[in-house]
Amino acid sequence: MRFFGDYVLIYDTTLRDGTQAEGISLTVEDKLKIARKLDELGIHYIEGGWPGSNPKDMEFFERARKFSWKQARISAFGATRKAGMKAGDDPNIRALLEAETPVVAVVGKSWDLHVTTALKTTLEENLSMIRESVGLLKEHGREVVYDAEHFFDGYKANPAYALETLRAAEGAGADWIVLCDTNGGALPDEVREITNRIRRFIRKPLGIHTHNDGDLAVANSITAVSCGVRMVQGTINGFGERCGNANLCSVIPNLQFKMGYRCLEESSLRHLTEVSRYVSEIANMTPLNSQPFVGTSAFAHKGGIHVSAILKNPRTYEHLDPELVGNSRRVLVSELAGASNINYKAQELGIDISQDGDRTRELIAEIKELEYRGYQFEGAEASLELLLRRGCGQYEEFFTLESLKILVEKRPENGNGGGINSEAMIKLRVGDQIIHTAAEGDGPVNAVDNALRKALEEFYPCLKEMHLVDYKVRVLDGKDGTRANVRVLIESADSTGTWSTVGVSENIIEASWQALTDSMNYFLLRRCRKKD
Ligand SMILES: CC(=O)SCCNC(=O)CCNC(=O)[C@H](O)C(C)(C)COP(=O)(O)OP(=O)(O)OC[C@H]1O[C@@H](n2cnc3c(N)ncnc32)[C@H](O)[C@@H]1OP(=O)(O)O
Ligand SMILES: CC(=O)C(=O)O
């Protein structure tokens, strides 16, 4: 086996196996963007797709050829030749060569069941398919990564034959022999035992490719590395066929920070969170908050006891310094908060509370009471900031309500599903001026929003720059039917970012009013603070 010392090479297959995930479809432009990002991160191999599969992947390789990659080697993926034909005549192998990549990954069968059932050929012919396909690609000067599909299942069923397939690839010159847990059902102990046995027979460097069907893809990958494997195949965020592939956002920091291997530069790893979110954004997949290492909740502390301890030393409740992977510590404020949560949050927001223990206690009591009534501040940090500022006397109202009247009129002649007119009449005080105005809208909440803006834009023209992004209503105690308390969560945005606010009431208009006015007040507060 070639000597790699502590180095483990990372082979990313987000653009190939990642796109086999349900719900993911990338354009050529998307693929190129992701590939460039992975190259910047320092990933060693980027598998761009399967050129024999579709025109999109062919175009990717055509365009990738013209790009000068910083250090990543681009790989094209395909299968061994079809049974009963010459490797050079197989359109799939020809497409692999026409992709003109420095690296080619070729997948072959290791499991006798697959040879006889899926390929419907003989065990001997499968060995020839592997030998001739790898041999031809080597004749054309490619670095060949041989992916031994279903290796662990194949080895369990027929160890001698599974090993024979690896020897066929190695004998034909494959540069890497990658053991695949294609069905994702292997256990770490099995991976350890089988990988250790294989190492005695195969001289070429080994790789590992695991799937997550048993939720063990990361564990199986790092176990294989501890047995001497020096290439890990996986995807960003674990995207992949069925339950996904080994998640590189977990594999890499585990190998590097916990096990002492070298995968990427430590300075690059500080971009891991950014890369994870970038790939989710392009793939149009909502990032998982609880994703280890890179999720927004990965270093979010909610329980008062936890926050109290991390303020003394973050190691008490963090397995790793979040900055190592470009993530950050967050403290949440909720009914589970203690004084530490409030003090941390206030300090983060620049609210001076530290000398006033009684004030802190009153604020905690108020938050707990409000959460009991249905408010949820961890999802509405803008409302929380207003509550803390009001509670500490560090806030001046931008406007106050004098009266609000809403008219909702349904006209039967307009039929079902339409014909409801909504109008809001509002009287506000801004400083020593009273303003009285009215507006219509698509529904009562929209009418209130329009009337508020109409009244306030004269005083605060910048309000035109904020808009509503999301409006969510949740019924809190369904048993009371239409009398139930509702929680309204509003997400708003301007050109600099988004913020969330909350309102709770038995009346949906009142709950919406609270969340809407908090949103506007928060926007105005930030604007005024910026001007200071
Ligand atoms: C473990 C993995 O993730 S492997 C990657 C899986 N990814 C994909 O399949 C996505 C891309 N695939 C495709 O675009 C298409 O399936 C293609 C172009 C590869 C093949 O399409 P088709 O020729 O229409 O065949 P189809 O998809 O129906 O069946 C696959 C064929 O490949 C054969 N095959 C499967 N694995 C191998 C292999 N390792 N070596 C040679 N042939 C293989 C199958 O036996 C089957 O042949 P058959 O049509 O003679 O029965
Ligand atoms: C190669 C591959 O994608 C697999 O065996 O799962």
UniProtKB/TrEMBL annotation:
Q: What is this protein called?
A: Citramalate synthase
PROSITE patterns per UniProt: AIPM_HOMOCIT_SYNTH_1, PYR_CT
EC code(s) of this entry: 2.3.3.21
Q: Look up the record and name the pathway of this protein.
A: Amino-acid biosynthesis; L-isoleucine biosynthesis; 2-oxobutanoate from pyruvate: step 1/3
By its UniProt entry, which SMART domains does this protein fall under?
LeuA_dimer
GO BP annotations listed: isoleucine biosynthetic process; L-leucine biosynthetic process
- A Gene Ontology molecular-function term? 2-isopropylmalate synthase activity
Matching entries from InterPro entries are given as: 2-isopropylmalate_synth_dimer, AIPM/Hcit_synth_CS, Aldolase_TIM, Citramal_synthase, LeuA/HCS_post-cat, LeuA_allosteric_dom_sf, PYR_CT
NCBIfam families reported in the protein's UniProt record: citramal_synth
Keywords recorded for this protein, A-Z: Acyltransferase, Amino-acid biosynthesis, Branched-chain amino acid biosynthesis, Isoleucine biosynthesis, Transferase
TM helices/strands, residue ranges: none
- The positions making up the signal sequence are none
Show where the Pyruvate carboxyltransferase domain sits: 8-270
Q: Which CDD domains does the UniProt entry name for this protein? A: DRE_TIM_LeuA3
Top EC class for this record: transferase
- Provenance organism: Thermacetogenium phaeum (strain ATCC BAA-254 / DSM 26808 / PB)
The family note in this entry says: Belongs to the alpha-IPM synthase/homocitrate synthase family.
Reaction catalyzed: pyruvate + acetyl-CoA + H2O = (3R)-citramalate + CoA + H(+)
